[in-house]
Specification:
Elements (H helix, E strand, L loop, with lengths): L2 E8 L21 H16 L8 E4 L3 H20 L7 E3 L43 H18 L4 E6 L1 H13 L16 E7 L5 E7 L7
Parallel strand pairs: 1-4, 2-3, 2-4
Antiparallel strand pairs: 1-5, 5-6
């Protein structure tokens, strides 16, 4: 039975001194620490016997995911050069993008945070169903459609996919529990972490989920 494994990587820490909810806004790049986190994860991927054989690197089109993916590509392509293999290029896909959010561009959780204004409380009355933006069902559906497409396209291969916390966790939660709804405060998707999901390449059925946090100690 051929197995396709998609390694979902969350981007590294973003430079955001004003503590804004950046959502899909342009111009939010990795911080210096975020770059170090991305490099730590890139080294982890390149050193792994399976992940180092990845044939494609995908990313959300946003700055922070593309920058994380570029660090991974640098490490992977160095490994591939040693083996006489052609270099890989980054492929972006809109289905991997961050969830839409009505609080975009606002300051959250620090000082006069938007969440604490009375006019916004109705948007956050239920943490399991994001009335403040794109539903978890919509998020999980688009990531799931992307994943199944890649399983059919890349039977028996490993792929690296750089995305965001909500898309990765909503999809994983759907696979593990049968529903994508969850408490956003209880996600298990650290910055620059790797969530590896393996599929039967013929049926698309999930056969395993693993998690690693190679950048946990990066300062």
């Amino acid at each position: 039975m051929p197995i396709t494994t998609i390694h979902f990587v969350r981007h590294g820490k973003v430079f955001n001194p004003d503590h804004l909810l950046y959502e899909r806004l342009p111009g939010f790049h990795l911080s210096d620490r975020g770059r170090r986190m991305a490099r730590a994860t890139a080294r982890f991927i390149a050193a792994d016997p399976d992940m180092s054989r990845s044939t494609t690197v995908y990313a959300s089109p946003l700055d922070r995911t593309r920058e994380t993916a570029e660090e991974i590509l640098t490490a992977l392509n160095a490994r591939r050069a040693e083996q006489g293999l052609p270099t890989l290029d980054l492929v972006t896909d809109d289905r991997l993008i961050e969830a839409g959010n009505e609080f975009r561009g606002r300051r959250i959780g620090h000082g006069d945070g938007a969440l604490w204004h009375g006019r916004n409380l109705a948007l956050v009355h239920n943490l399991w169903k994001p009335s403040w933006g794109e539903s978890y069902a919509s998020i999980a559906d688009r990531v799931g459609r992307f994943a199944q497409e890649q399983v059919r396209r890349h039977p028996g291969e490993h792929l690296i996919v750089v995305s965001h916390e909500s898309p990765i966790w909503s999809y994983r939660h759907l696979l593990e529990t049968g529903h994508p709804e969850h408490n956003m405060l209880l996600r298990h998707t650290a910055l620059a972490s790797v969530t590896s999901i393996s599929y039967d390449s013929e049926t698309g059925r999930v056969v395993g989920i693993a998690y690693a946090d190679p950048a946990a100690d990066v300062e």
